[in-house]
Each structure stands twice: as C-alpha cells, then as structure tokens.
C-alpha cells in the first residue's frame, strides 16, 4: 500500500465507483478546502501499489503554468478538472485493467499533505448472448417447429461478463420460471422447459442478461413455431 511510502498522510476510504467497459469514470479527490494561503503545490494520482503516479498536476508555478502530466498508461484518456467540488480525475474509454484502488495525494505549500482513496470497478458486459436448442445448437429467429404437447427445453447462454451476469426468461413483459443460472468456464447458462400449446404459436421468448445497474440488459429472443 502507498501508505507504507507516505506514512504521514491521512487516509479516508471513499465509496466504490463503477464504470462500464468503454465508458467514462469520474474519480473524486476530496481535497480539503484550505485557506488560499495554503497553496496547492502538486496533486498526484496513484493506482494500487504502483510507486509512480498515473496522473500528476504540478501547480508549483501556478496559473497558466500549471502542468498536467498523465502516465503513458493513460495518456490522452485522462484529464483532471479542478473546478467542480470535489475535483475529479476523468477517465474515458475505460479498460478492464483500469479497475483498482486509486489514491489522490495533495501536497500544499504551507499545510499538511492529504491523501484520499477511491475504489474503481470496471464492469465488463457479456461478450455474447445466445439461445440454444437441446443439441446445444444456436437458434436464430425461430425456434421449432415443435409438436403441440411435446416438452421443449431451451438454454440461454451468456459468454463472458464481469461480474457474471444474471439470466432470466421472459414472455413479453411476463417473467418466466427458468432454471437457476449455472456458471462454468466463463459461461452462464439457464434452461427454460415448457410444453407448447396452440396459443404459444408465434409467441416470443426472451432471455435477459444483467450484470450492472448502469446499462440496460443484454437480450436475445426467439419466436416459437408449431406444426
């Protein structure tokens, strides 16, 4: 931990922040509103146990001479905005490797040093969502035709995703009782077994995959066909 390198700083753990892969994250730096004469010298952002900062604001010269220096890892993907409260480190085009614990260290000219902690989680949506028949073959568009009264099992499979997605089955806006999702080798599966009736002809069944509350669910649908 960076506290081993800077034992004189105060640490405050902030709430966790989440960002979806490819989106934007705003990480706050709870800089104390010190008197103007305290004067900020530098602001450093560190990640995990890395000794080198991932972003530096050098305000020793002040005014227009303030330097913003992102690390090679972030480069043009990061910027620091000191104007809102709290000031934020803005990161765009989030990557899975951006997840971690971030430390904002603020050095004053005539005051103590402060450090605050932000935990960033990067959510990875499922790479693919498919509906399979009982032979593990992907169904595209139409499922069947099936015999009326014959038991049918469909399987929804989500590939990838972090955290693992939760799967659910739907008929229009009506939730269906599918099998409990099972995770195995980076895939999540849920079965739905039903006995089709004539009223099920051209009915649309949908599988939804959800692994966050930021974006909408991934969905895949099939239409039931009968003989």
Automatic annotation (TrEMBL):
One of its GO terms (cellular component) is membrane. The keyword Transmembrane helix applies. The keyword Transmembrane helix applies. SMART domains: IG (SM00409). It is found in: Membrane. Residues 7-106, 126-223 form the Ig-like domain. Keywords: Disulfide bond, Membrane, Transmembrane, Transmembrane helix. It is a single-pass membrane protein. This is Ig-like domain-containing protein. It comes from Araneus ventricosus (Orbweaver spider).
């Amino acid at each position: 931990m960076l506290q081993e390198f800077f034992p004189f700083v105060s640490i405050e753990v902030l709430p966790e922040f989440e960002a979806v892969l490819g989106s934007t994250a705003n990480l706050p730096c709870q800089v104390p509103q010190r008197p103007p004469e305290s004067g900020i010298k530098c602001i450093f952002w560190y990640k995990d146990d890395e000794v080198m900062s991932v972003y530096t604001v050098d305000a020793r010269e002040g005014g227009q001479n303030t330097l913003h220096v992102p690390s090679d890892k972030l480069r043009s993907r990061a910027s620091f905005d000191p104007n809102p409260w709290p000031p934020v480190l803005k990161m765009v085009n989030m990557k899975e490797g951006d997840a971690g614990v971030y430390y904002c260290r603020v050095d004053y000219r005539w005051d103590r040093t402060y450090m605050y902690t932000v935990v960033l989680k990067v959510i990875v949506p499922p790479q693919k969502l498919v509906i399979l028949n009982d032979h593990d073959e992907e169904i595209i568009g139409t499922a069947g035709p099936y015999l009326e009264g014959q038991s049918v099992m469909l399987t929804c499979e989500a590939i990838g995703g972090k955290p693992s997605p939760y799967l659910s089955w739907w008929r229009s806006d009506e939730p269906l009782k599918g099998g409990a999702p099972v995770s195995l080798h980076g895939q999540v599966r849920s079965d739905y077994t039903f006995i089709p009736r004539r009223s099920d002809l051209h009915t649309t069944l949908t599988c939804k995959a959800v692994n966050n509350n930021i974006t909408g669910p991934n969905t895949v649908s099939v239409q039931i066909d009968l003989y």
